[in-house]
Automatic annotation (TrEMBL):
This is Pyridoxamine 5'-phosphate oxidase N-terminal domain-containing protein. It comes from Craurococcus roseus. InterPro entries: Pyridox_Oxase_N, Split_barrel_FMN-bd. Transmembrane segments: none annotated. Signal peptide: none annotated. Residues 166-198 are annotated as: Disordered.
Length: 198
């Protein structure tokens, strides 16, 4: 299992007193294989955000959309999605061919969804054009398979409610103190949550 944190992550965690919290979140939330709940959440998402980087580490972030179910968890250690016709630049897929490290962010903008954000970091590969699995993904010109290294839901508190247009009540604003999110008071975490900074 690849480490979740490098020296610069750790330096900032130490500066803000959150190293113990970061470690606890990894212990209690991070996993290396998809659960049935992960698969259902991903299947319900009509879009996700894909982060890639080229061989020199220059990043790119892309929106990927389709009908719910266009991204599929095929096994506990495998996810696949089609590449649809786009602008022809092939930034994401070209980057994957040069550097297989990827990050995927799935989100639900509905306040009742659980989880509302799911992050998947792993390695990806681009299929050949004659991949027989492409038949199962109508409209796909290529297929991307992702092997997860780190899967973790994370705090949805800053996500606006797309249905109502309401902004997150957790966003800091002049003259008010936002509420603490519920997860910070959970028994498994509250002893390692650092004090709120002024």
């Amino acid at each position: 299992m690849a480490a979740m944190f490098h020296a610069d992550n750790r330096a900032l965690q130490d500066r803000f007193g959150s190293r113990a919290l970061a470690d606890r979140l990894v212990e209690t939330r991070r996993r290396g294989a998809f659960t049935a709940e992960d698969a259902a959440f991903i299947a319900a998402c009509p879009f996700f955000f894909l982060a890639t980087a080229d061989a020199e580490g220059r990043p790119d972030c892309s929106f990927k959309g389709g009908d719910p179910g266009f991204v599929r968890v095929l096994a506990p250690d495998l996810l696949a999605f089609p590449d649809y016709d786009g602008n022809g630049m092939f930034k994401s897929l070209g980057n994957i061919r040069a550097n297989p490290n990827v990050g995927l962010l799935f989100m639900s903008f509905s306040p009742g969804a659980n989880p509302a954000r799911l992050r998947v970091n792993g390695t990806a590969e681009v299929s050949a054009e004659d991949d027989p699995m492409l038949r199962d993904f109508p409209g796909g010109q290529l297929l991307v398979r992702v092997r997860p290294l780190h899967i973790f839901p994370n705090c949805p508190r800053y996500i606006p409610d797309a249905a109502t247009g309401a902004l997150s009540p957790y966003t800091p604003r002049p003259g008010s103190v936002p509420p603490e999110p519920e997860w910070k008071s959970r028994a498994a975490l509250r002893d390692v949550v650092p004090p709120r900074r002024a």
